[in-house]
Amino acid sequence: MADKRIFNFSAGPSMLPEEVLRTASEQMLNYKGSGMSVMEMSHRSSAYDQIIKEAQRRLRALLQIPDNYKVLFLQGGASTQFSAIPMNLLRSGSADYVITGHFANLAYKEATKYGAIQVAGSTQEENFSRIPTQEELQLRKDADYVYLCSNNTIYGTQWKYVPQTQGVPIVADMSSDILSRTIDVSQYGLIFAGAQKNMGIAGVTVVIVREDLLGFQLAGTPTMLNYQIMADKDSMYNTPPTYAIYILGLVLEWIERQGGLEAIEARNERKAKLLYDYLDSSTFYQAAAQKQDRSLMNVTFCTPSKELDALFVSESIKAGMSNLKGHRAVGGIRASIYNAMPMEGVEHLVAFMKAFEATNGGR
Amino acid sequence: MADKRIFNFSAGPSMLPEEVLRTASEQMLNYKGSGMSVMEMSHRSSAYDQIIKEAQRRLRALLQIPDNYKVLFLQGGASTQFSAIPMNLLRSGSADYVITGHFANLAYKEATKYGAIQVAGSTQEENFSRIPTQEELQLRKDADYVYLCSNNTIYGTQWKYVPQTQGVPIVADMSSDILSRTIDVSQYGLIFAGAQKNMGIAGVTVVIVREDLLGFQLAGTPTMLNYQIMADKDSMYNTPPTYAIYILGLVLEWIERQGGLEAIEARNERKAKLLYDYLDSSTFYQAAAQKQDRSLMNVTFCTPSKELDALFVSESIKAGMSNLKGHRAVGGIRASIYNAMPMEGVEHLVAFMKAFEATNGGR
């Protein structure tokens, strides 16, 4: 058992493709005959330059990022972007935030330090079990941007539509569903995502931003949070998180080998369907998110009692699965099934759920 | 040759102990029977909690950090601290900066966005070839802090004394000499360092700060740059750069095995002495920094001509050494000999230098 890898349902940092880990392990002491680890490379060296350029090229190709968008590799996690976004984009001072969960709310609160921020919609009263509809959104025509979180890790909901905003740029936190499906980047002003769910390891955050939005930062914006400077220096103003970008590149290569985002999306749909179909067929388990807005990445549910939830989690660990405990804010059970979770892992989980229901359903 | 590791004299990111890389490679797919890579661990898991706590404990022990100092593991590199320091510490609005090189100057410029910053000393007119003396420093008694950069990577100089500041806290950028020698942390208000020279990989920055300096951040300070919040959350406000902290822990373990900082310092002195003694005995090579302030970490010198400098660099690569080219701001040659550079690497370099002088000295 000590040698066996387990199915890791962690919400992030989370499972990585085993091939990526094998490559990283093999190249650790000597990257492609360079005589050194990627960890040891000067970020200004030609070997590293190729690594970071290839990562950007692959990301651009996979997401079909238009030429008028910059791709930045930054540090500080999505939480740092919660500050950087208003500091860079509040050119006239107002923005609309849609609150669909914990992280959208944090982003909103942070933005209120820097401008006149309004809540354009919220499902807090329904415990964030769904996404507001287009009709429910109260959007200002003159806002600098509309902010949303495309997938809500804690609650297990996901936006299934891109809102109409009458030309106001949409800023989207895609930390937990970037690269899980095809998107049309041109519908957004700015997309950002921490890497530690679908793209790699904690420590690098990708920002994809339309060029015309740059250059309007507030006075006092820290240099490292200034998108214009980061874009001008191609994410090399200072030493970037070199190894995290290397792992990102390996993950992007792996996605290419899977057949790109169409193939990844189809597989993610099959994985989620297996789990949701079983949840819907069961009277023992209760899914947390409303059907129309269910996330393909984070599946949230509970058993009939808190005690059984806890038993489920402890038994699942013995069955070779980890991190199925729901977030402390909502309890219950959460299965995060990002790109790197194989179908086999979901099948293993569903089989376990069935057996658990059979054993404990009569209590 | 493709399998052979080379002597990497890069100024940062830089050489790591081979033992650290071997351990990282071996644990890549399955960390101590956990069934997963450290890269894949939830930062809230008990396995990861032990990794980050152990890293902090080891750092505290090695540097003998007093209990009234907080240790933070942050992102964004030293450059992010150039903003965070004034935003957190300018409680009355003024600070004194000593300019001893490129990075001290960047820190100074960034700070001027946030308060009344004065230059307390500069050796720019002497091309930063030395450190100002205590007598040259013009320090205000009522400044919030005095800022210095303890080792100047580009110019090859290093502070050999801790200035008297009449109780004004000293803030020191130790990115390129932390853990290279023993220091008395209590002489500083705040010490910070990017990890990618002596501590690990790019992507984690250590901040060691005296508790009484916290809680005075300027309005508008981004949450992620607010030391008080990071301290209250023990660097876990959001997902920290988990893998970079793991590597930091492995490097700290390695330092312990070397005998701690006294042993490391003695070895660093021997390594530098070998190189400087040869430089001083040669009429071919010219050392760049003034003798009394020479860095033990970055040894800067040149040959009689730019052409020979370039030839030196290209020949050194063939001889199994990399990154000996001086920084573009000063030219010449620079050998960065951080903790992980073995004595054997310096001996190899000196032997190469002698042969190069013998061949090209007559030109």
From TrEMBL, chains A, B:
Reaction(s) the record says it catalyses: O-phospho-L-serine + 2-oxoglutarate = 3-phosphooxypyruvate + L-glutamate; 4-(phosphooxy)-L-threonine + 2-oxoglutarate = (R)-3-hydroxy-2-oxo-4-phosphooxybutanoate + L-glutamate
Superkingdom field: Bacteria
Subcellular location: Cytoplasm
Entry-linked InterPro entries: Aminotrans_V_dom, Aminotrans_V_PyrdxlP_BS, Pser_aminoTfrase, PyrdxlP-dep_Trfase, PyrdxlP-dep_Trfase_major, PyrdxlP-dep_Trfase_small
Aminotransferase class V domain residues: 6-349
Alphabetized Pfam families for the sequence: Aminotran_5
UniProt: pyridoxal 5'-phosphate binding residues: A78, S79, F103, T153, D173, Q196, N238, T239
The protein's annotated pathway: Amino-acid biosynthesis; L-serine biosynthesis; L-serine from 3-phospho-D-glycerate: step 2/3
Binding-site list for L-glutamate: R44
UniProt modified residues of type N6-(pyridoxal phosphate)lysine: K197
GO function terms (MF aspect): O-phospho-L-serine:2-oxoglutarate aminotransferase activity
Record note on cofactor: Binds 1 pyridoxal phosphate per subunit.
Cofactor: pyridoxal 5'-phosphate
Keyword terms of this UniProt record: Amino-acid biosynthesis, Aminotransferase, Cytoplasm, Pyridoxal phosphate, Serine biosynthesis, Transferase
EC number: 2.6.1.52
Quaternary structure (record): Homodimer.
Protein name: Phosphoserine aminotransferase
Species assigned in the record: Amedibacillus dolichus
Encoding gene, per UniProt annotation: serC
